[in-house]
Fold these 2 entries.
Entry 1:
Amino acid sequence: MDIQSCVTIINEWDIVAARQLGRNVAKELGFGTVDQARITTAISELARNIYLYAGKGQICIDKLYDGGKAGLRINAVDSGPGIKEIRQVMEDGFSTSGGLGAGLPGVKRLMDEFEIDSSPGQGTQIKATKWLR
Amino acid sequence: MNKTISNYIQAHKQDILDQWIDRTKEEADERVIRLVSDRVFNSTSKEFIDLIISNFKGTNEEYTERLTDFAEKVVRLGWPLTFVTKGLHTFNLIVFEGMQKEGLVNAENQMDMVYEFDRWSTPMNNEIVSVYSSTWERTVSLQKIALQELSAPLIPVFEGITVMPLVGTIDTERAKQIMENLLKGAVKHRSEVVLIDITGVPVVDTMVAHHIIQAADAVRLIGAKCMLVGIRPEIAQTIVNLGIDLNQFTTKNNLKKGIEAALELTNKKIVSMEGAK
């Protein structure tokens, strides 16, 4: 049984809304404060990427129930310019916008599972999951 | 306004009001019903109907004024806009059906009457929507100003030591202000050490970290030292996970420790008075 709720990212304040949604869901599922902070930070990174690079997109938060395990999945979807070199953006310190370049590799480290699907002109879809232990 | 319609409404005012309240309550969102008491609901409804009626009684100015008042009240009560527009629609329906029953609307003049209603209600609808949205816009912009006021104050605590407490989300706009206030204030107060307290920042992502690092670099350029305090344990973990390098910073977990370190850096000491009780 999966339950989903979404936030459309258009301006900077939507990032806060997405974060808030993620934090609430994480709290509901029983994640501790550290994992809550990890999840909200990951959402913040993904939402900001949408805002900065694609301009518009969506962050969806799914509750996952797999056997006895519960988890939370962040689904970040946009139809922006896409990513040319996925390997490059997953390297620490790579940034096209003069930022720290820790966003995507950071999200990967913050979460348990990380999946990225993108090609130039096709937009980007990122799925990041955290399991409740 | 067509004479027949206005005469009908004025003659049946109470009747229309009762019907309108019944129907609206049936259709209204639960949110609205839960939010307001019956008394408020009835008095506001009455005001709404009076407002509609005053549309063709008083002067134009009177009407606009009342409409603004009403919109503001509805915004304050937290009623959704659809409630008001639907309310207008229901009102029209009740009047139209009532007039049909009395034979004032018949097969012959039906089309004319529909147009007449439309001519009357469309401008009113537009007016309500525009007043409503401008009331909201004003509320939002006022809040924005209020938010800016508590944005990034710089507080001198000792000679040479200043603190900037940050509370709430940091967006690009605020990051700019933080940088400006920090530099301006550090020069003005002749700070040797500037402490940035992030106890109240809910999320430190790469963007926030990037802005803080830039601010600290700039502070260093004007000859002061920057310290980051108020790093909660969970924030410390996410910073490590993200792989953000804060090595060039002195960091402390709370403001107290930060101030102690800052005093040490500026060769100061706080001593208890001897003989004090």
Entry 2:
Amino acid sequence: MPRWGMLFDLKRCIGCNACAVACKQENTTPTGVHFTKTVSEEIGTYPNVTRAYVPLICNHCEDAPCERACPTGATYTREDGIVMVDENKCIGCKACATACPYKNRFVLKKAPIKEGYYTKGNITPFEKQGYVRWVTGTAVKCTFCHERVSEGKEPACAATCPTEARVFGDLDDPNSKIRRLIQARKGYQPHAEFNTRPKVFYVD
Amino acid sequence: MNNAPVQNSMKPGKWIPTTCKMCLHSCNQLVHVTSDGVVNKIEGNPTSPSNNGRLCTKGNSPILRLYDPQRVKTPLKRTNPRKGPNDDPGWVPISWDEALDIVGKELKKTYEEDPRKLLCAINDFQKLYLWAWPAAYGGNGSYFSTVGTFCGAGYHPMNGMIHSTFAAANDPYYCNYWINNGGGDGFSSHLHVTAAANHMAKARVERGMHLVVVEPRLSMGGAKADEWIPIRPATDRQFALGVCQVLVYEGLCDYKSLKRDTNAVYLVGPDGHFVRDDQKRCQIWDPEDNKAKPWDAEDIKDFALEGNYTFNGTKVRPAFQVFKDILADCTPEKMSKITDVPAETIRRIAHEFHAAAQIGSTITIEGRELPFRPAAYNYYRGAQGRKYGTMSNHAFKLVNFLVGSIDAPGGHVGATLDDQICGKGHILPGDCGQILPQPHQLGPGMPFAYPPNTAHLMDYFPIGVNPGHLIAETYFNPDKYGFDWKPDTMLICHSNPLWNMNGPQDKYFQIMREMRFIVAIDILLNESTIWADIVLPTLDYLERWNMTMIEPPDTEGQCLSQPVVKPLYDCKSEEDIFNELSERIGILDVWNEVQNFANGFAQKEELLLKPGIKYGEKEIAERKGLLWNDKPIEWYQEHGHCVTKRRPEIWYRPWDGMRLHFYLDYVLEVRDDLRKKMEEANVPFINEWEWGDYAALPTAVLDPLHQEPPEYDMYAISFKDIQLNFTENLSIPWISDVVYKDPVHMGILINTKTAAARGIEDGDLIEVRSPYGAIKGLAKLTEGVHPETVAVSNALTRWVKYHMVVKPGGGNYNRILPANLKNTCACSGQMETTAKVKVTKLRSKPKDAANAVTDELTN
């Protein structure tokens, strides 16, 4: 059984957010919901200045605070390490969103999704075919594109990344690209001090 | 959980190969269509060696263009006769028959009166042959657009003269030292950006390629570079000349290449022309025999690059010496004062560039031994969009020339626009062993005429790209320019001229207001097309056929677009629209002839379009595929494309055995010919033609913008990022969502210290005023911009609320640019794209920010 993780190569990422848009078209997330995105930050003072582009995603923590906080057991970790939400058990209490130190949880409004990408009440055929997956009032999150992964595909964000800055793979396989990169380039976890043991790594 | 898939790509459906049209290039895609017929996922086609199965931000977003509720769904007719930026056109839907009859009748009326009176803005890059439609109409194509001119009027002809190509880029496979000057290649813009970003990342991370980025603003590339060198805007040519000075005066050149591969050895007389013998042969100086010899003499022992000599009683110098003499004035110290780049930095970059070039080394590729020059200087719009456009472009090429990296593995390599037919070379032999300069890569040049036949004076730009902005001069001064006719009709096709034209917006408003008739052909409305009398809606690329390949830097082939869904609305293909209009005007047969030429069908006789037949989009696409590789359209439907890596023999040194134009005597010949024609025709504005813009070699002369009055004490530049590369995309919610969250697109960028000195804080409303116009915006303080510069994202400047998800901004950046002859390169037509400005604080942190920056447009 693999243990899935993702690595972000900060040397490659150019902050284009193709990942964010690929996620939106793969998952039809409603307006305002981004399972992944890339943010930027300026570092230094002129002329010794640069800008860092940092991809963000659910870290699928081994010791997931969201899972511990969930009162109904809706949040659970699959055998392959992907942290999921069972929308049939979720009561929309937002405990997971509060507990997540990385703020990578979203809770859908209780009302049906009427706010289309363009305007209220104007839902495109694309949204119509996609929004049926959402149970209003429940917590949602990145699933590492679990269905794609089951079929041997990469998550949509990693598959499209123009610079191959996102590496998805099996953290338990010593020969996987992700493991080799973590070792060769001293991969680190985001805010390791939170002690949540993320399955997401960064290399500089 | 139920078991039905929730992820879009995993739902029942089929994958159909097609080709992206979210920018002008052609990434290969796979489109997932559900069993209910909804397009729900688009991915890169992994069989493509171009984009390698990957897509950029825009390439991920076409679904929302297809399903945009604001697409034009039927032909529209205007009911409000009053035309202005804020006037509701009062559209009413009409039938195609009625619309085509109205447009056909109006265009026929103009055609019969004087076809020159039609102004065109036809800018679909994936159907380049449509650009040639005005040729069928007979009007020589007066432009009301600056597409091609902005990015380069100086750029494209220079590539045509140096490489015989439309564009150029560094070789990502072998380059070890890459200078990016004012260009987004590999990061944010230009050629096949997804592919280029992929190659760039691999080169940097896997091969350790060193990247130096020279530009006023810390762009994506600057942020990823090993070194960002901030430079004062509009001084890039002087930086390049400083680098050249070090290479030449410290003896750091590829002398073997200069002697063998270039005309730098040809002798130049006092008039700047090559000297020739009685058989018109160019001359070289043989230092062994100490005498001049014809360039092709068999007894040449060596070529002099330097020295002063006498030929037939005339003082002569090798072209290289001419450049060396110019460079005497371009020391790093002097260039430092102009560019604000420290002299030691210019010197160090020259040394690093030279060391990385490995002069003398070779590489064997597919059995062919080639010079190996893994150092290359790349540049694009920001660096070359100058009044002295030809000189600027030439300066950057010369850095590459000096180390022998033009078209060498690892070097700076030409990229053709569209090869059309597999196996056709793009190099032609020219005069005296040189390649034939081919500045007109978009179509044939315009013949000289006086009175002028074009409203934008293209009759006087024998080398350049259409300077559409000059209509701001000619339309209002017809007597001065000798016009005995005046434009009164306009055709807009996939263009937004009010948006792309530089200079005085009120004049462009007046021109549009005075048009007797305007027809617009597009998928969405924009700032310009809302002025139309009739709008003819086109299909989305996911609904139509096309075959294209546009300036791929390192691949070749053809890419098919095919309908993946039935048209959602009552729209037609561009081919159907132009066929119907051509038939109504009575020019269908000529149009077919023009298409045969523009598409290259004449190269295979069986593909020729015949008179009297209206060829649809599928038939044109099929012919283009057959022209390339004889494969039928069914083959393309299955594979989507036939893209391969560019063959080394046509990529690297395809001109081997000929000489490149280090020295552009050709430009001087064109200048002399034009001047003679203008004198003979008594062209009254001849004295305004700045003949110095026609230069055989660049000098360090300052572009005129630096001489604006001193109160304009800062520079303004504009920029785009990968989310906005080439075409408009802010109307796509996914794009505007990520763009408007990015700090560089959230305000007018101004250096923190500069802002502090002027009492400007983050979020203050500021005005940026040039001698030509003003824009407003919220200040965004940053360390990542040169202290004398404000930088304006293209995303900030929309000014008409025509689309529900586009944020109005503080006016169009282009408004602060001049549109006059003084700031237009008389050789290339390139306009100045940087402005001198004064920056004034208007209000502290306005609460109603959105309204505060919305420009008050006059009706």
